[in-house]
């Protein structure tokens, strides 16, 4: 792991900015090394010391902080729960922490299935309040107890059930955002009606259309038609490349902000599309003698219309079995197949309101696996509590992996790569060969339904890890 990077330039600007923030902004302001050190890290391997930290007591205070930072020449970095595994929330900037105060649920329109929240609202807190309406926000990331809606929108977060519900970009209706100029605009699908600020927004939306439409041929040629394409700006808002294809007749400019990682605007509030809570669910746990088979057969499993298909690999299985809290739960999901202990399992969930439909899907899953030479490999879980306990083990996967004993640990390596399902097995096989070449193995944390992988080789970073990377 690299040492903390302390910027050599701009500290005088940061000192001047901190003084102004204390005078002119309703916020907690920190420039001490200890606090800045805490904000120098997130869930990734990266460490960069921020120039200062501001914790605004309102979104208006955040807007003022942005304006002051601009005047003092200090970059800004909005931050939520710090759950990113790719370093998006660290940088030599003024960090604006939304999580402490800017975290209110502003409005719920249950009839139209909409909720408006401030950027620091934590996903689990939101869903707890929506439950009484029979609704939830279905972008169910594994860090839901810490992840904030603003950060999820910034990263275009996805979650276990994205094959059915889509990503953040498919579930955000509008965003009220502050630009670097200090102007506040509402980004939605009715931009032609917005005449505020002397027509500035109309000019802005026209320029966005000019850029996106002017690049339409390049976008069509180079943007892959993947649901889990979250690696950059959504310039395809006028001609979407992903399978869910959001509305092209009325392009939504909020979808350009989703995934922009705080580089285009600060989110004052977000209007979210909600979904009804599922009335019934069943889980089929598919046990595979080899990891390759799990990856290869995913492409056939998704044809049954599951809500989720999630991977638990052999490393996680073994670690869970060695944990007293998780052992009883994981044991109920395992069974030998063709005389071999499972090298991987897939959690396949069906969630139709009609329970009989779900049970029929489970039977079809069993038949599908038998057709591919794996009869009797499915553990049927129809009990809701049993399902919940197993999903909690899957949700704790990253913590379980980091409990590995010894000096070697799974190290963040390739995060959120998206692979078309027909290529998934071959991709993982060839990457396994790379690990073997360097004398190690890899752990796999995957949303198999959409071919998304978190790949972590086991390295001893105290000795030869850096050389192998």
Q: Which terms summarize this structure?
A:
globular, 34% helix, 4-stranded mixed sheet, 469 residues, 5-stranded antiparallel sheet
How is the main sheet built? 5 strands, antiparallel
Gap from first CA to last CA: 11 Å
Strand order of the largest sheet: 5-6-10-8-9
Unreliable runs, pLDDT <50, ≥5 residues?
1-9
The count of DSSP E runs of length 2 or more, i.e. the number of strands, is 19
> How big is the Rg?
23 Å
- Strand residue content: 15-25%
pLDDT averaged residue by residue: 89
Enumerate how many helices there are, as a single number. 17
Find the structural class using helix and strand composition: alpha+beta
Share of helix among residues?
25-40%
Shape: globular
Task: Please describe what this structure looks like.
It is built from 17 helices and 19 strands. A hairpin with a 4-residue loop joins β18 (442-447) and β19. The protein is of the alpha+beta class and 469 residues long. The chain has helices at 11-24, 33-38, 59-72, 123-130, 149-155, 162-165, 200-214, 216-222, 254-257, 291-301, 314-321, 327-331, 355-371, 384-395, 397-401, 421-437, 465-468; strands spanning 27-30, 52-56, 76-79, 94-97, 105-109, 114-117, 135-136, 172-178, 184-187, 266-273, 275-276, 282-288, 308-313, 344-350, 378-381, 409-410, 414-418, 442-447, 452-459. Helices cover 34% and strands 20% of the residues.
